[in-house]
Design a protein that fits this description.
Bound molecules: zinc ion
Low-confidence stretches: 1-8
Strand order of the largest sheet: 1-4-5-11-10-7-6
Number of strands: 11
Distance between the termini: 74 Å
Length: about 375
């Protein structure tokens, strides 16, 4: 008997004709078919094997599914047809599923991808590093937050500007040195155009102030953050790309006191409430009067001396120069159809990298743009 049963196992499966349609007999027949399906699907090694397997089980003409449909379902007596039908449907689903699974396994083997069916769910997952804001962006957002709290909106504009927006409307005279290629990066091939239409990489975000004033009437309160470009050689404190935040407030009766109060508040919000500010006369074409703003040195608390030695950060002066500002030159209002006799306002601008360098103690501006993860990780 044992010899016969071993032979039966190695013989290819054939669909037996059923004469007994009792539940027990049906279950036995289904078990036999199911183990044949397992056995045969395990032996598949190639696409050719798989095609033979698929056709043997699913071929419309004489496939095993067709055979059980004919010799089990159609041959069954009426009162057991429902039970036979349920089993035949279950087998059909099993066969279709197996044929599809074997095919995708073969495909995964061929493409070298891991076998989806054998993922070990107990293995620890892949830990992905969580990103963080770039220190320049973080500093910019912090500064924007300070002015948002004062009721300023945020304006943005193109990085490629015309001479008109970058210089002319900001009251730069035609021969101003900033209009020289030594300081400004111009787009090539513009010589045929009139000067005011020539394209350049904006050297400050001030053009956004002009664009904002063209779009809306006073009162205006806006900060303009963004990337700017100058024809500077790389060194520890200069980069041809850097970021600026400029601000503009235009309304009736705005005075220099408003400017001083606003910037003093902003510097305290950024660097701490003990920071002092002072204003030095300066010159910008688009403001009159103009001032440079210095803050008391945050490294030596304005003493000029740190650890018994002259403070290097403020060159022992106790002050650090941080930004430029002034009352908007009435000539600028002429370019945007504001009535200079009725409105007044102030503008200011600061370098974002400069602030980040001070805030985080960075000694080389190039670190911000090198993409070195070891540097950036310190801010996560
Ligand atoms: Zn100092």
């Amino acid at each position: 008997m044992t010899g016969i049963s071993r032979t039966a196992q190695t013989m290819p499966y054939t669909v037996s004709k059923l004469t007994d349609f009792s539940s027990t007999a049906l279950d036995a027949a289904v078990r036999e078919l199911r183990s044949a399906l397992d056995r045969e699907s395990k032996d598949i090694r190639s696409e050719t094997d798989w095609k033979v397997f698929r056709d043997r089980w699913m071929a419309r003409k004489n496939g095993i599914l067709t055979q059980i449909n004919d010799s089990w379902l159609k041959a069954s007596p009426k009162d057991s047809r429902r039970e036979v039908g349920q089993r035949v449907n279950w087998i059909r689903a099993q066969v279709e599923d197996r044929v599809q699974k074997v095919e995708s396994l073969l495909l995964e083997l061929a493409t070298g991808k891991p076998l989806g069916d054998f993922v070990d769910v107990t293995l620890p997952g892949i830990r992905r590093a969580i990103g963080a804001e770039h220190p320049v962006i973080k500093t910019m957002n912090d500064m924007i937050g300070v002015f948002r709290n004062l009721g300023y909106s945020v304006g943005e504009g193109p990085e490629i500007e015309t001479d008109f927006y970058n210089f002319e409307a900001l009251n730069f005279p035609p021969n101003h040195p900033a209009r020289d290629t030594q300081d400004t990066l111009f787009i090539a091939g513009q010589d045929a155009k009139p000067l005011r239409d020539r394209l350049l990489l904006r050297t400050h975000t001030s053009p956004v102030q002009i664009r904002t004033m063209q779009k809306m009437k006073p009162p205006v309160r806006v900060v303009c953050p963004g990337k700017v470009h100058r024809n500077d050689a790389l060194d520890a404190t200069h980069s041809p790309i850097f970021h600026q935040i400029e601000g503009l407030a235009v309304d009736t009766n705005i005075t220099f006191c408003d400017l001083k109060g606003t910037l003093d508040h902003a510097m305290k919000a950024m660097f701490g409430s003990s920071v002092k500010t002072r204003f030095y006369p300066s010159f910008f074409p688009f403001t009159e009067p103009s001032a440079d703003v210095q803050i008391s040195c945050i490294f030596c608390d304005g003493k000029g001396v740190r650890d018994g030695a002259p403070c290097r950060n403020c060159k022992a002066s106790g002050w650090i120069e941080l930004l430029g500002c002034g009352m908007v030159d009435p000539n600028v209002y002429g370019f945007v159809d504001y009535d200079a006799s009725r409105v007044s306002g102030f503008a200011f601008g600061m370098g974002v990298e400069r602030i980040a360098i001070l805030k985080y103690g960075v000694d080389d501006i190039q670190l911000f743009f090198s993409g070195d993860v070891r540097f950036l990780e310190q801010f996560s």
